[in-house]
Structures are given as C-alpha cells and as structure tokens.
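Let us work through a complete example step by step.
Step 1: write down the sequence.
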Amino acid sequence: MDRNLALDFVRATEAAAMSSARWMGRGDNKAADQAAVEAMRMVFSTIPIRGRVVIGEGERDEAPMLYIGEEVGSGNGPEIDIAVDPLEGTNITAKGGYNSISVLAASLKGNLLHAPDTYMDKIAVGPEAAGVIDLDAPVKKNIHAVADRLDKKADDVTVVVLDRDRHSQLIRDIRACGSRIQLIGDGDIAGGLATALPDSEVDMLMGIGAAPEGVITAAGLKTLGGEIQGRLHFRNEEEKARAQKMGISDLDKKFSTDDLAKGNDVMFAATGVTSGSFLRGVRFTAHGAVTHSIVMRSKSRTVRYIEAVHHFEHKETSRGTKGLQGGRHA
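Step 2: predict the structure and record it as tokens.
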C-alpha cells in the first residue's frame, strides 16, 4: 500500500476514545464500550478501504459490537483485515482507573491471524530482549535470559502480569527469582507494548490473557522491534471447534510475532482513554478535547505520537450528555 492508512485509522481510535471517556468513572462499562463502538464504526465508514473485522468483540448477533466478519470502510480501496478493540479496559474506564485505550491493528487481507475469542498464553519483550525468550521455557530461565540481555540483575527485571487467580503459580515463580511484578487489572495490550517503549519501566509481559489482544499486541511489537510468543489456551471443546473453523489446524501451535501479524505492512493505532503507561487519557476542555495517540507502520518502521486538539460543537443528546461534533486540529 502506498497510502499510510494508519493516519486514517487513528481518527477512528480518537473518536472512540473521546466518546468512551465521557463515561469515565460513571460505573457503566457497557455504556462506555457502546459509545466507543458507535464512534469508531462511524469513522470507519469514511476510510477508503474494503475492510473486514477479523478480530472484534463478538459475533454478528452481539450487535452493537464491531463483530467478527463485519464489513467496514467506504467500500473503495484495498482489502484490509482489521483487529479491533474499541475500548480495551471497559472496567478500567467505568472505575476511572489507568491504562484504558482504544486500539486497532490492520494489514492487507490474510495477514492477521483469525484468532477465536479464547485465551492465549503469552510472553512478550522489547527489542533489546527479542530472540532470547521461549514460551515453553521455565519462568526462571526466561527472566535470567532477559536480565542478561538487558545487562540487569534478575532482581531489577519488571514483569507485567494480569491480576488473576490463574496466575498464582506464575507470580510465585517470578517472585522466587527476586523480580519485580506489576499486576494489572486489565489491559495487557498496553502492558505488552510497554515492554518495547524506551521510557517504560516494564521489561516483560507474561501470563494468560485474551487471544485477540495477542494479535493486536503483535502488530504493535512488530514495528517496535519487540517479540511476542503465544499459544491458544482453550476453555472448552466449543472453542477448539471454533478455532478449527477459523482455519487453525494445529491447536497446540506456538505462534511467533510473524505468525500473529504477517507481512511487512502492518499498521497499529491507539488513543488513550484514561492515562496510563504510554498514553495520556482524553482531556476535555471548554471547547473540545485533547487526545494522545500512537500510530505505527511496520513498512516504514515509523512510530508517531500525536497530540490532537479537537474543537466541538455541543448539543444536548437524549441521554443528557453532550454530543461531539466538529473537526480537529493536530
């Protein structure tokens, strides 16, 4: 593709972030998610692509979510596969916490793994530690390999882990190495990308999270030079059947970064909803809002941070909240 569509896609994540940020701290995660979906879908309709959602929030009968198989875009332009999470961290947003983002990845048709809505066992690192991790290796071996590559002691390595009961043994193993742990409630896309960002305090991500988020993380790490490995972690036979129906024949396959996000033209865009480890949240002003986004494209190895100032025309909606209209200036 000659055109950098990532700069179009960031308009979709900006719109979703601003709409969902209206619900920050209001205790309604479903309303926040729906606001993000509706705003993103509206912007998608203006982007010159023939897009198809290969990773979304559900199936066709779960509208208004951006469902798997949904066609998006203007209907003109290249065929694009899209992996999307209009609001990663719905509970975070509802509680007014940290690290919720609107995020998507995109590439030419066939280049993103069609991952079912199941779990994935993951390990991810930044560019300095790429090539030394192994999903099948013991926790201690991985931590010491990363520590050696980073010229650190194991005590100084920081690992991001989702705060879940299923990770009790993993947490004990990490602590046995003397390493530091950053437990997060949600948002392992942000945690995975943080491993590859220079100002981050995070060195590794480990543990079981959602498989779709693993594909989106891979798209970001591909441009940043990091690495992720993952294996699907099925909860039942129905999920295995769905994976096979989606074209995954080896259910025990250890996926590499390139397995999850193929090709040399993978795009990634994310906008902060609430402030977190690498993006600031939406800040509303008297006349609009300020958003903070990251946009990446593997073809050019370009990483852009965009702070955009949006000017709104306000009008009252039926919900009693203010609608967002108007343009933006970056």
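Step 3: interpret the result. The longest helix spans residues 6-21.
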